[in-house]
Design goal:
- The complex is a heterodimer of chains A (97) and B (137).
- Chain A is globular and about 30 Å long.
- Chain A has a 5-stranded parallel beta sheet with strand order 4-3-2-1-5.
- Chain A has 4 helices and 5 strands; from the N terminus they run E-H-E-H-E-H-E-H-E.
- Chain B is of the alpha/beta class.
- Chain B has one domain: 3-Layer(aba) Sandwich (Hypothetical Protein Ychn, Chain: A), CATH 3.40.1260.10.
- Chain B is built from 4 helices and 7 strands, in the order E-E-E-H-E-H-E-H-E-H-E.
- In chain B, the strands form 2 sheets. In chain B, strands 6-5-4-3-7 form a 5-stranded parallel beta sheet, sandwiched between helices. Chain B has a two-stranded antiparallel sheet with strand order 1-2.
- The radius of gyration of chain B is 16 Å and the shape is globular.
- Chain B starts with a strand and ends with a strand.
- The chains are: A alpha/beta (97), B alpha/beta (137).
């Protein structure tokens, strides 16, 4: 199952709640303000690194660009709306709000 | 058969299948990014040959479908582009009646291609589609 997170972990518990429920192999996609989670070297970077041991982590590149985030945590892949659609094609979706 | 390699994802998706997608949009236009994310996602999905069956508007989301909005010319017209998507690609734009009534939105204020319906329709959308995506907070 694909998990999308649209709120920043600095403002909402959505990411931490998601991490508690995510199954190994489930991709996690950060969109909108959620992309602040993967800005390189923030206080959630350890949580992102731990999550990446079992799940691929993506961030919506246009939302990174809109927020001036040019450096993301290692192995986090920036994808466009096309990539978002590909993930949705391959997985059921849970939108963490 | 098409193989799509997703970045950072070891598996390769073979036999790309077209999916039917329903969207739940819960925030108003120009107020929250959800209206833009939902639209851009729907646009990309349609471009890839998937079906976007319906966009269900709930809570402030119903404001996406009024014909009253008249943004500056150099700004995107969110209501108009939903209307165009409805007409060109058969996407149903459906506003919850209770949410609409609370906000003074009636049938005659709806964009072309949009209509007002009951919350039960959201259940139908969830049942009849392969995927349901929620945008909002």
């Amino acid at each position: 199952m694909l998990h999308t997170i649209n709120t920043s972990p600095f403002e909402s518990p959505a990411m931490e709640e998601c991490i508690r429920f995510v199954q190994p192999g489930d991709p996690v996609l950060f969109i909108e303000n959620g992309v602040y989670a993967v800005q390189n070297g923030n206080r959630f970077s350890d949580a992102i690194a731990a999550l990446q041991k079992t799940s691929p982590v993506y961030a919506l590149q246009p939302d990174l660009d809109a927020r001036g985030i040019s450096s993301v945590d290692a192995e986090v892949k920036g994808i466009g709306y096309d990539g978002f659609v590909d993930l949705v094609e391959a997985h059921q979706v849970n939108s963490w709000l | 058969m098409r193989g799509t390699a997703l970045p950072g994802f070891s598996a390769t998706i073979l036999n790309s299948e077209k999916v039917k997608i329903g969207i739940l949009l819960k925030e108003g236009p120009y107020n929250h990014q959800a209206a833009d994310t939902a639209y851009k996602f729907a646009e990309a999905a349609i471009k890839k040959g998937h079906t976007v069956d319906a966009v269900f508007l709930y809570n402030d989301g119903v404001i996406n479908a009024t014909n009253l909005t008249d943004p500056p010319q150099d700004d995107r017209n969110i209501a108009a582009r939903w209307s165009e998507m409805a007409k060109e690609h058969g996407v149903e734009i459906l506003a919850c009646i209770a949410a609409s009534k609370r906000r003074g939105i009636t049938d005659d204020l709806m964009i072309e291609g949009g209509s007002i319906t009951g919350l039960g329709t959201l259940t139908d959308i969830a049942i009849r589609n392969d995927r349901l995506l929620t945008f909002g907070d």
